[in-house]
Design a protein that fits this description.
heterodimer; A: mainly alpha; Four Helix Bundle (Hemerythrin (Met), subunit A); 74% helix; B: mainly alpha; Methane Monooxygenase Hydroxylase, Chain G, domain 1; 0% strand; transmembrane (chain B); membrane (chain B)
Chain lengths: 167, 125
């Protein structure tokens, strides 16, 4: 076991454990905070796997922005401070789908790679990603801006019912 | 401490050292200080600006504030693409074309801000 293996196992355990807490806790706000731990551990996994820029993007976008969005969404609801007992729904279908997808993917990956040893690639720095994006992937990059614009306009229209109605 | 993981090991060591300093300082404080907390009436009450709170502890936010959070997410995504761009745009083989590509990207997103502005999302009501 190398240091990278130990780190991967530890961070993976943290990610899975906090992920379980997200879905089992009865407190809505705590679920959002456990999600921070889970996404942070995933960022750590990226970092160990030398995907440097992706790891920090994960921290910036997911741990930062997306969790803020989620907590905002929680604040829109009526009164989630304290235990919400009505959160619990029959979990069996979700368990079946989630567990099935996880086990299926794990089986596929184990079968595909067996005991192949893969050396960690050269670090995915901002320079390497920038070269890739602006040399080979310019069109998807520009289309992405249109996607973001559409999402922004959609969010504005959905959150302001007075837009689009004729007076 | 060489190589990719080694450089982060230095950072990890720094974080560890800072945690040790923090825990050490507060534990030393706890060991050395006298402890006789007073319990006057109302010490553990919550209060707001010196006034006892009235009503519940939860104010339901309006949905229009959601747009601000959403704008933040969008422009965080935009900012993320600025980092790799800023590193490479003056390298040989990139130059003006790359600058124009990023300008188009930012301009399309600026249309979104323009839309929000024209629809009076940004005014505080």
């Amino acid at each position: 076991m190398t240091a990278a293996d130990v780190l991967l196992l530890g961070l993976g355990a943290v990610a899975v454990g906090s992920g379980l807490l997200v879905v089992t806790t009865r407190h809505l706000v705590r679920a959002g905070l456990y999600l921070v731990v889970c996404l942070g551990a995933v960022a750590g996994l990226y970092l160990v796997l030398t995907a440097e820029l992706v790891a920090w993007v994960q921290v910036l976008i997911y741990v930062g922005a997306v969790v803020v969005l989620l907590l905002f969404a929680v604040m829109l609801t009526r009164a989630p401070i304290g235990a919400s007992d009505d959160l619990d729904r029959p979990g069996w279908p979700a368990l079946l789908v989630g567990g099935g997808a996880g086990l299926g993917l794990a089986a596929l990956l184990v079968d595909a790679f067996r005991w192949t040893k893969v050396d960690l690639p050269e670090a995915g720095t901002a320079e390497r990603l920038g070269t890739e994006i602006f040399r080979s992937w310019v069109l998807p990059f520009e289309v992405l801006s249109v996607l973001l614009l559409a999402a922004l306009v959609g969010a504005i229209v959905v959150s302001r019912p007075d837009i689009g109605t004729r007076e | 401490m060489a190589g990719y993981l080694g450089s982060y090991a230095t950072l990890g060591l720094l974080l560890l050292a800072s945690v040790v300093v923090f825990v050490g300082a507060f534990s030393a404080n706890r060991l050395l200080r006298p402890a006789s907390p007073a319990e006057p009436i109302g010490k553990r009450e919550t209060y707001e600006c010196g006034v006892d709170p009235v009503g519940g502890d939860w104010a339901q936010a309006q949905i229009r504030y959601y747009v601000y959070a959403y704008l933040y997410v969008l422009f965080a995504v935009e900012a993320v693409f600025l980092f790799p761009w800023a590193v490479i745009f003056d390298r040989p083989g990139f130059g003006a074309t790359t600058v124009v590509e990023m300008a188009i990207f930012v301009a399309v997103l600026a249309l979104g801000i323009l839309y929000a502005w024209r629809k009076r999302i940004l005014t505080w009501t």
